[in-house]
Amino acid sequence: GAVVSQHPSRVICKSGTSVKIECRSLDFQATTMFWYRQFPKQSLMLMATSNEGSKATYEQGVEKDKFLINHASLTLSTLTVTSAHPEDSSFYICSAKDRGISTNEKLFFGSGTQLSVL
Amino acid sequence: QQQVKQSPQSLIVQKGGISIINCAYENTAFDYFPWYQQFPGKGPALLIAIRPDVSEKKEGRFTISFNKSAKQFSLHIMDSQPGDSATYFCAASSDMDTGRRALTFGSGTRLQVQP
Q1: What sign has the CA pseudo-torsion B101, B103, B92, B16?
Q2: Per-residue pLDDT reduced to its tens digit, A38-94
Q3: Nearest Cβ partner of B41 from A44, A45, A112?
């Protein structure tokens, strides 16, 4: 099946630093990628939708200047948490939609990134 | 309108038993209803999905029952095994909503299958 690679799987950083998370579709092209955030024992909350070559669409309450999303190619989207603070500590998950399929039946998730900000 | 309500929050089942998780939605534009399985520290993995044109879909030990009029759908895990212990999320989306095709997730159910 299709694979979405997310890296790193775990990152620990100091408060005030920036962290970049990569999401790659390995065997398909993804025009649309979604970024989710998940707190312990909670559901996945959509942060933003990124489309290749255009600006990301952020959900209400998500600071676009803090969570920078770049979707520069059909196989790579990055999420940069700028000036991270302890409250940004969370599990971040990306998902990618196969370019050739218009429905969510071909939506694949990465393995997630656990961010811990000290 | 975008909310998907899931219950129960947690579930303990004996090995060999049936696990049942329920979800209800509000948005009548939703037309795709998947279930995801998530293990700790991992991303969710698609388990099974259904569209509103059928009332039931079965894949191995997993069955989705769908009630369009009640706007409810459920996941049944037959012959539950300890390896099924995970968190299960229902989700929904509308492929007709061209502007937002992201999945809306339920709150999750932590399933524990006791040996």
Answers
A1: positive
A2: 998 899 999 999 988 888 999 999 999 999 999 888 899 999 999 999 999 999 999
A3: A112
